[in-house]
Each structure stands twice: as C-alpha cells, then as structure tokens.
Amino acid sequence: MAGSSPFRVEPLDATFGAIVTGVRVAELDAAGFEALYRTWLDYALLIFPGQHLTRDEQIAFARRFGPPEFEIAPISNVRADGSVRPEDGADDVIKVLKGNMGWHCDSTYMPVQAKGAVFTAHVVPDEGGETGWADMRAAYDALDPATRERIADLKAYHSLRYSQGKLGHEHKAGSAYSGYGMTVEEPPLRPLVKIHPETGRKCLAVGRHAFGIPGLGEDESERLLEDLAAFATQPPRVYHHKWAPGDAVVWDNRALMHRACPWDMTKPRVMYHSRIAGDPASEFAAHA
Ligand code: OGA
Ligand code: MN
C-alpha cells in the first residue's frame, strides 16, 4: 500500500527493542532500509523472526549498516566435522563462548569499538542459550544524580585478556583461537559515559572487559563497575530472546550490552555473527 510502512514494528516490554515482521530483510529497497535504520537507532535492537538468511544475505544485510569489522563468523560449539566441542577446560572456543555469558559490548578491547552486529540462529538448544541485551541509554538516564556526578569523568581500561583471564583463558601466542582481541597488548581507555554518535544520548559504558579505573583502588574500581553493570541489567532495561532457527537480529553495540545465557553444552548451538565496524571518529579509544 502506497505510503504505508514496509514493515511492522512491535515494541518489546522493555525500554528498548522491537519485533519486526512483514518484511524479508534481504529484499528491502533503499527507502525501506532507510526507514529500518531509523527504527534501529530508536529501538537499538530489532528482532526479525523466521528470516532464514543465507550466508551471503546476512553479509549483505549487515553491510547496509556500515563496513564490516568482520563479515561473518560462527559462534558455535560445533566443530567443522559436526562433533560437539568438549567442555573439558582445554578448548579455547568453549572458553570464548563462556566468556560471552558475561555482560559486555563487542570489541571495546579493540582500538575501535564495534558499531553493532547482525546475529542469526541456526541450531539452538531446547532449553537455555537465550541472548540477553541491556539498554545502556536507559541505564544512564536512571542513575541517581550523585552517581552520575561521580562517574562523569571516569574512564576504564578494556581488555579481552583481562576478561578471558578470569575464566582461565590465557593468551598463547600462535594458538588458533587466541588470535582475535587476545593479541592487543595495550588496553584502550574508555569513558564510563559515552555519547551515542547518531542519537546524542548518553550511554553507560561498562561490562566484563572493563577494569582498572585510573584514580580508584583495584577493589573500589571493580565494585563500581560491577554495581553499574548490575544496575544496568535490571528490568525494564533488559530483555532475553528465546531463539528459533531462522531468527535474525541487529543490535546497536553503542547503546546496548549483551550476553549469552548458559545451556547444556553437550547440545549444539550454532549462531552466526556479522560485526559492523565502529566509526573511528566516535568509537576509537587510545590506551592513555
Ligand atoms: C557475540 C556474543 C552472545 C550469544 O557473538 O558477540 O556475545 O548469545 N554472543 O551467543
Ligand atoms: Mn558479544
């Protein structure tokens, strides 16, 4: 129908997020995508049930949001030969998947934080394995004035070696899976309060990669970061999605934290992640 929206938007019962139906995202025209992009900036998380994107469709859809940090990667406990990886404390891929179970934003440990991600479900367990997101815009808005003032000028280092180190995942030079992010030698230093480059909204920037706030003692820094993350992830600022194969989502990594929920890791879970690169003008952080 002329003039009508090319898709339907049903807001989640939270401060953010919407289910989008009535569209195949792979077939959106330029005007349709422009409307979708504005909706994405508003809601920060769009969920598209039943898309069943091919690999090429996922890459192409993600590219419409901006150039890739990486085009597509499996987030999976299944090996190429179809076997399920053992939860034996030795498999680095399992350690990365377990790391994803802590609240975080993607690539804050890289010089340039990610803009967002297109994420799709392929094989999902019957129970568990949901993905959660938390609204860091609403979290900032809900802080009491004293806390806002306390954190206004604070910064934290972000490191994947730090966050994975807590789980016993050590960086080993030359290890097949210790590569991405684990090779960063000098952690970037990022403000705890970040301005979203496209909406102008203030966002709380914490998560599991953050540590070592300069000017605070180690314990004080850890307690503050934990308290802020715990506050951010309370209702109505949080939503967990129960996946069905074929679901696709796109989230704004500048506005939301996310995490995977645990599942029985003897069961396969296969997801694909296309990471959209951050704009260095707003997402770059030097290490000091
Ligand atoms: C990721 C991630 C969460 C999940 O792919 O960056 O954190 O639910 N995934 O698998
Ligand atoms: Mn992640």
Key traits:
binds N-oxalylglycine, binds manganese (II) ion, 8 helices, 24% strand, alpha+beta, 7-stranded mixed sheet, globular, 288 residues
Protein architecture, described:
- The chain is α+β, with helices and mostly antiparallel strands.
- It has a single domain, classed as Double-stranded beta-helix (4-Layer Sandwich).
- The chain is 24% helix and 24% strand.
- It contains eight helices and 15 strands.
- The protein has helices at residues 30-43, 55-63, 92-99, 136-142, 145-151, 160-165, 218-232, 280-283, and strands spanning 8-11, 18-21, 45-48, 68-76, 116-123, 131-135, 155-158, 189-191, 193-195, 202-204, 210-211, 238-241, 248-252, 256-260, 270-276.
- It is globular.
- 39% of the residues are buried.
- Manganese (II) ion is lined by residues 100, 104, 106, 258.
Give a brief description:
The chain is of the alpha+beta class and 288 residues long. Helices cover 24% and strands 24% of the residues.
Q: What small-molecule ligands were found?
A: N-oxalylglycine, manganese (II) ion
CATH architecture designation: 4-Layer Sandwich
Helical fraction: 10-25%
Strand content: 15-25%
In CATH, the topology is named Double-stranded beta-helix
CATH class placement: Alpha Beta
Cα gyration radius (Å)? 19 Å
Overall pLDDT metric = 96
Total strands: 15
What's the helix count?
Answer: 8
Structural class by sheet pairing and helices: alpha+beta
**pLDDT < 50 runs, ≥5 residues:** none
> Span from first to last CA?
54 Å
SSE string, helices as H and strands as E: EEHEHEHEEHHEHEEEEHEEEEH
